[in-house]
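Lecture notes, structural biology module. Today: joint structure prediction for complexes of two components.
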Amino acid sequence: MKLDRRQFVGEFTAVIAATFVPRSLRAPQSGQSAATNAPMNEGAYRPVRLPAVKSSPSMTNDERDKLEHEIHCQCACNLDVYTCRTTDFTCPVSPAMHRDVMSLVEGGHNAQAILDAFVGAYGERALMAPTKSGFNWAAYVVPFLALGAGTVLVATLLRTWKRQTTLASSPVRNVPVEGTADEIAVIDAAVRRDDG
Amino acid sequence: MILVGELSLWVALLMAAWGTTMGFAAGVTRRAELVLSAERAIYATFAFILLASLGIWTAILASDFSFKFVASFTSANLPTVYKFTAFWAGQSGSLLFWALILSLYSAIAVATIGSQRSELKPYVAGTLSAVTLFFTLVLCFGANPYERLDWIPPDGRGMNPQLQNPGMAAHPPNLYLGLIATTVPFAYAVAALITRRLDSEWLVAVRRWALLSWFFLTVGITLGMWWAYVELGWGGYWAWDPVENASFLPWLTGTAFLHSIMVQEKRGMLRKWNVTLVAATFLLSIFGTFITRSGVISSVHSFAQSPVGYWFAGFLVLMIVATAYLVSTRLRDLRGVSQLESVVSREAAFLFNNLVLVGMAFSVLWGTIFPILSEAVRGEKITVGPSFFNQVNIPFGLLLLALTGIGPLIAWRKASAASLKRQFAASLTGGLVTGGALMALGMRDAYALVAYALAGFVLTTIGQEFYKGIGARRRIYGENVFQALLRLIGRNRRRYGGYIVHLGVVMLFVAFAGQAFRKEQDVTIRAGETFETTDPYGHSWRFVSQGVSRYDELNRQTTALLLDASRDGERVGLLKTEKRQHVDSRGVPTFEPSTEVGILEGIRQDVYVVLAGVSSGETAEIRITFNPLVVWVWVGGAIMAIGGLIVMWPQAGRRHAQAGYAAVLEPRAAIETAS
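The predicted structure, tokenised, for the full assembly:
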């Protein structure tokens, strides 16, 4: 088989891509969400059904809308079900997911049971944020651990630098500004005279 | 013109390769004629990329649908202004646009490098050419905008309706101008590291470019938020989407650099850190481009999935390795010359400011890539949405806001307890009074209360700085308040321009905290029907449907709903929200219908209405959102940009001023030592 340069480079990058990035990480390509530029995955809907546990609704409409903010629409739009269904009327997935939420609410299921049912059907990607369990804790904890480690590092550095310091070795230098140096110095001295 | 443009792209590739070779060869051999050759190659690269860009613009304006790019992103009936902006609407065109700006910046950078930094010039030219070479390689072999179709369609696919918005015409160019400007400081850093000339000289040039980058990123991000708010219809302006995060990351590290550079200028400290920040800012720009173009992470507004992303991944890895090697082999040269006298000093405050900014950048990066990590570790695909980012980043943001107020109150070198007490008294009072007043008024949201209290604290700090400065000028020079204010800013643009930026930051936080009180409802309403509700301030609102209308305009078929809005019984205006079906020149629908929101803007809140759909003739499904304080996002962004302009405005007579400093360095130092 003979390849021209463009084909060669294309094939080469495709091989690299296939080697380093799992296929599942690449976005599906069928249609396009009107709310976003992301390709819409219209066949992503899966029914979420549970037998009713009570004959009265478990929450008010406002509480249900709030709950829908925690459920990820599966049309690949990156929006929650409430926002997607009230924004993008071309999306067939969020209205279907909304109907499931309504039916579960009517069946007396509480918020956690409804979220669990959606996770059961779609996996954790049904939620707008990682659950606080197992490996997912890393998502929440690592940034603050990093900040804590950074604080300790900065504090240690400051103490080390302070120990090494002699007054004579550290003049404050002026950096260029528009006013004459005298003028700036006088104003600065007046502004900072309280500095003690 | 089109053929000239197509050929020019290939010549630009050769020129960039020549510039790279000559730049690094000139650095090694120190031959002046090679430096000149590298410099000329950069000018030539710019000229040829400009020709290539003009060629594409010509093809777009002529609706030459034999080109895949033109057929994919335009149609014959696309309004001319959007034909012009279609240049950056698609993958290959936007890459050419990137290369155009990069080559322009490169030409300006080498032309203005100055004789005092001549030793850096060959490596600066070489590095800039190398980055341009990468982009021209991608353009020629990975995403060529001149790629032709096997057949010529009667009309193009048209532009995504959501890109047919003034905000989208201005947002990408500003963002690109900001992201690409990070390349010049990176080139200086590479040159300084290779030559081991790591004194403060290279920072003088770098600071200007870093400010330029920060300015355009600020404008670009603000415009992007505005576009998302008025165009996407989901009611917000920031969703922590990976592509939004991609622009925010270099902004955060760039902001950190603009603070830490002051410490190096004033005290000769943080040299390693500053080089690292410059490199990190550039690398994050490339990382963002990788995210946007690879399809690796699902995003609201990424380009189509493309192997081009892997070119960027490879380039990113190469740059990280090269930078890490350069920094690790020059650690001795990067040692600071000054040390710290007190942990209670401006330099220490800046260090903590950098810690929070970089910590925030890390947390955003972490959240952005966590879905990939989760899938790699657990095989479980998860979503990391706004609720996660808000949980993690709100504490970082509040810390940052606090430091915005603390930093200016602490003196360089050392601040005594007595001076701290005096300096902080008014600001702390301002913060406590604000928080207390809001609590008394019934505000109970903890984050919002802390945000507003801190906003009060920072505003008092800024006000105090201006008050003292104006007072000092009035006493010393006898100026009136207005003169004193203008001269205070004009004579020390860096400091007071910076305070104006901080003022914009406070406004942003005030607006962000307002989102805690957002209220939304979905409503089904028929012509003549009324819907009544209350807003977050307790005012009662009445919306009367004036009915649904359908009509054709420009390149679209529109379905519109009119609502007559009244507040507390007083009519405030009409709200129009639309669904638009865009069509090509033959009337064939091009994209899925898009939303045009209706907004009643106000300084206290926006009333935001979205037409979600129309069923059975006149029955409209709408979402009504009361969005408190949103307008302050745009005002805050504009004030930040104005502050940035003041800081970077060229200084007349700077040479004279600089010469003067050496003469007065000692007296000035004496004043600060004594104070």
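Point to remember: Chain A has a mean pLDDT of 74.
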